[in-house]
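Friendly challenge for the regulars: who can give me the structure tokens for this chain first? No prize, just bragging rights.
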Amino acid sequence: MEDARRCLTIVLGLVLGTSAGVATGQTLSDGTENGEWPVYHGNLAQQHYSPLDQITADNFDDLEVAWTFKTDNLGTRPEYKLVGTPLMVGGRLYATGGTRRSVVALDAATGELLWVHGEKEGVRGAVSPRQLSGRGVAYWSDAAAVSRSGPVDGRIFYVTPGFRLVALDASTGQRVSSFGDAGWVDLKSAAVYGDELPIDPVTGEIGLHATPTVARDVVIVGSSMREGHTPKTHNNTKGLVQAFDVRTGERLWIFHTIPRPGEFGHETWEDGAWAVTGNVGVWNQIAADEDLGLVYLPVETPTSDFYGGHRPGDNLFAESLVALDLETGERRWHFQLVHHPIWNMDISTAPILEDIVVNGREIKAVSIMGKQVMVYMFDRETGEPVWPIEERPVPQSDVPGEQTSLTQPFPTRPPPYDHQGVTTDGLIDFTPQLRAEAERLLQRYRTGPVFTPPVVSDLDGAVTSFRSSGGTNWPGGAFDPETKILYAPSYTSMVTIGLLPPPNPEFSDIPYVRGNVLTGVRFVPTGGDTSGAETPDRQAIEVFGGTGARTATPNPQGLPFLKPPYGKLTAIDMNRGEILWQVAHGETPDRIKRHPALDGLNVPRTGQAGAVGALVTKTLVIMGEPLVTMTETGTRGAMLRAYDKATGEDVGAVYMPAQQSGSPMTYMVDGVQYVVVAISGGVYSGEYRAFRLPL
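First reply, four minutes later:
Bragging rights claimed.
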């Protein structure tokens, strides 16, 4: 059999019968109430909540390691960016891991490996723009079989680095031969660029890190393309969403995120821009309401991230929340969060479905957070905003050829929950000297509110635009369906956005790409697209022009430019649209704690800048730190922290040898509650680590 279709499945030990499974036809609250974790975020509402309460504030510090599972041998080299969140169904964990993106089944109580499945995709996998292990899998079981007490047809679905949808038997890890072509569907076959030109089936650039979504016996898969900082062409692969029959693999519908002629929104791509623009993928988790028969798409930026002169117009459905009919893929409603996107805001989190009560009125709501640290809330059936969202004037671009939108949408509540833009009030103020240095450095950069546009970099003018970055990224938030409180992790760092013409025509056909006069134009390969099992040695960073400076980001004496906290956890009452509390998340980084300019100062915990996800239980919010520091245990590592979900009080912490890199989840087996989290980074390779109370 050809290399691209070779697979490896190893089953270890006895198959102990089929699991009870989770039936289809779930309601909004279905998912974790029986102690399982059957969906990436716990349920199709993407709430990342479990009602388990064995682990509490009183005993969190007593947690011990139940088991660990290293992913080093799931590929040709170890992985140092394990971002998965496992599922737990019927006493088994299902997860992806390793540079081959292998799927594993583990005993939930012991971590013992039961089976492993991996695909060898050759060149197709090696050129993928979305490599490594991805975020996990989806689970489905036959509701009809459950209702008649027959054998359960449990299946695991995942997307390979080479963009195939694979269906596995949950008991054995073998491909389900009745699904698609011997167990898989070629997702690339529907992908196009330009004016409906098919991409190359091997080298065409499209992939996905997110898991499929399974709702009402339909498997829904998004798409992701190469990151757009320095793309070679604006005519990149176009985003799309595909849906398949869960049993047969038959394609049911396709939704074009860049509308074609005759489709709704096509007119927002002026001057034929739809035919020469790519990206606009759906790279995060897709939420679903099976009762309403709707799915909710978080849609990303078009090519390129910071320049859109080649695509005049608002560019629907870029950076929009889109509700589709689950059965047909038809658009029911949409809301564009950013018009004519040039800030790389994407929609970086999964939509969260919430049943709330506002002024005595019950509302089936959906909310979305993101890098701009605002919460946009809608009636999830109609798309009407829960609270008014105002179109407000924003700064305009002076980059040649760029045509920015005159206004952008701003929610009136809840208020922003972290830094937006850069002002002097937000600058570092540990000492007057540091504040003065920050103000001096700031003079060479263009700053302003949240939608301050990028600039053409100029030594005699603005080196770059300078803005806060981070916000809430791909791990997303968590929602407590009992208290109606949303928990929003966020972080703040600074980013400089400058534009320069490409150094040569072969580098890019876009008039302006990211770069600046100090460091030049750089092509920087990322771990997500250059470190897979099939990939040759990592590509070197290419630098064109510049003065030789290592960075264009000013840091006063090497310290962060803004005031702390640099990492936060915010609790938001979704019934009222009000912030209840905020706390700094993460110990103060060593480079700040030990900085000579701060010697003798009482610097409170600053929190840590990094994207981490939160888990909400009956009484706690659980989050790991995104950085390694010298911990309170006296050992370098990171802490898995617990907060009282009502007050934000830090009520416990346990040691981890590396930072949290995937969102935590929890489940109960044989009367014991476990918390499992992916850790990795630096020199520490990927590992799933399970905690429990002493037996």
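The first strand starts at residue 6 and ends at 11. The domain at 121-606 is CATH 2.140.10 (Methanol Dehydrogenase; Chain A). Your move, everyone else.
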